Amino acid sequence: MALLPHRHDPDAPYDLDPHHHPGLHVIALVEAAKGLLALIAASGLVIAGPVPLLDLLHDLTRRFQLDPQHGVAGWLEHALSPTGVHVAAAIATLYGVLHVAEGWGLWRAKAWASWLGCVTAATYLPFDIYALVMHPRHWMSYAVVAINLVVVWVLARDLFERHIHPPKGQRPG
After folding, report:
1. Of 57, 77, 108, which one is at a domain's C-terminal end?
2. Which residue range is the domain that position 165 belongs to?
3. Which of the four pLDDT bands, split at 50, 70 and 90, describes residue 4?
4. Residues 49 and 82: beta-carbon distance below 8 Å
5. Global pTM?
6. Listed residue (121, 167, 19) closest to 113, CA to CA
7. Cβ count within 10 A of residue 30
8. Each residue of 31-48: pLDDT tens digit?
9. What is the DSSP letter of 67?
């Protein structure tokens, strides 16, 4: 299954049938999976609350002989309050819902989902490139940049095709 099928007729209108956009389906599955994982994490934060997380932090602080009042350990100690955990759960829930919705929209070949995915993936690129510059010998940095570039390219190409060859009954615009 090719991510970008060859257009048989370059002047044909954009095909609204989602089955003709396998690249969108691949990205949709990844986005939906990311969203579901975020929703599971948010649920876990709400169900567990701050007490088990604080216990884990205290164990790690003792095991690695960290200063519990300063640095990351100190910051986490203050952040792992009921309010902090609920804020983190709310952010994870929003992230999850956004990515599940994007996955659904891409699966159905919706233009708004291509816009959303293209903009969000492009937003990550400066951070990915920074990580690549900071860790040039780590293969994961190259993989993340390459994957995000492919995602941006597939979604931007989809949007370009929609614009250049609008579906029947729609004007370019």
Report:
1. 108
2. 110-173
3. very low
4. yes
5. 0.78
6. 121
7. 16
8. 999 999 999 999 999 999
9. -
Distance CA 85, CA 157 (A): 40
Q: What is the pLDDT of residues 86-135, one digit of tens each?
A: 999 999 999 999 999 999 999 999 999 999 999 999 999 999 999 999 98
Instruction: For residue 132, tell me if it sits in a domain.
Output: yes
Compute how many other C-beta atoms are within 10 angstroms of the C-beta atom of residue 45. Answer: 21
Q: How deeply is 114 buried, as exposed, middle or buried, from its count of CB atoms within 10 A (0-12, 13-18, 19+)?
A: buried
Same domain, 98 and 44: yes
Judge whether 143 lies within some domain. yes
Structurally, the chain folds into a number of domains equal to: 2
Q: How many CB atoms lie within 10 A of CB 34?
A: 17
Neighbours of 173 (CB within 10 A): 5
